[in-house]
Amino acid sequence: MKKNVLIGVIAFLGLYLFSTGISFAVFTYVVDPPKFEFLSPGNVEKQSGEQSQEESKFKLLLDISGPKTEVCPLNGKKYTVEERKAWENRRPLLVMVENHEESRPQSGLSSADIVYETVAEGGITRFMGVFYCGAQSHEVIIGPIRSARSFFLDWASEYGNNPLYTHVGGANCNHGCPGGTSKADALGQIERYGWGGATGNDLNQFSIGYPTFWRDYERLGRTVATEHTMYSTSERLWGVAKTRGWTNMDEEGIEWNEDFISWKFAEEESESGSVTDITYDFWSNSPAGDYSVKWTFDSATKLYSRFNPSNQPHKDLNVDEQLTAKNIIVMYSVESPANDGYPGNIHLLYGLIGKGDGVLFQNGKAEEITWSKATRTARTKYFDSKGREVLFEPGTIWISNLPKGNKTLTY
What we know:
ten-stranded mixed sheet, YerB-like fold, five-stranded antiparallel sheet, alpha+beta
């Protein structure tokens, strides 16, 4: 009898210690994930000189003290040889980042080479950051990460046959699409494109989980809803891709950029123009909370700074710096409801394959342009009034897609 009691006590203690250890691990690494220190883009530029005490606290992954001679194939900006060696062993990382009020300020967008933005649903926009050249010198926390949408897949498909597309689930036919299919069925599209599966290039949080992804409910110093709490980092995501065999080339030895077409970039910076303020709404009747955008051009830095509604600087939480861009494109495409049986019919479609109009902003100048994309995998190209492909200024490119007929753009 005593022996049975002793065994029971020992078993209870063992179970208690085990459950306590699990709880501690969950609390430490999920509720309160490891903290990171990152190098701000502004400080990256200063590494060639003597570091101040403030600058030296940031953790670099590479020695970037050398001259910036290597041109980024995505946005034309120059980086060091060490950074080029790093990105040449990888393929671009495309991450869905939300823009709900509860997600601001986001993390990581200042390190993206290119950012795409359009409405996901209900007038609320979503970003797709393209991380490649600017995310090699330091690990970048990215988030909050949200779900896939079919029209973002059209853009993602321009970055090689098997781009690293990162998201948390996505639009699908779980609510009974008419006929069993829908043009808004992003998850179905991912499978049809051959991106899915345990060894595929699709980085869906649903199939990967912790520690590549984690939730942080107190990131903003206050509790937010679960859908605004998913994060990852550039290094963790590239790490998963490497284990799956998706580096700069696939398992068949085909490099990601074999058919990739770079945009064209100006060799010399032109003089500044007088267009200093740009404003637009993605929907003419923006929902409560407002998702209007303002950019202000600084002739000294030759950069556009982004503002949220109420003229608040739109910042990157990682570095506590305002988001900037060297080039801004406001393009127009046909918006339509998906009619896929989803409650409220809130899933949208955008006609990003075809042709349309837009405006290019760079160096304080505005230029009316057109755009063209022949197929899903074809590169979107932008042309001036004479039919010549536009020359981007080397640096961050920000592309905002508005519904055709939207008249809110002012400059």
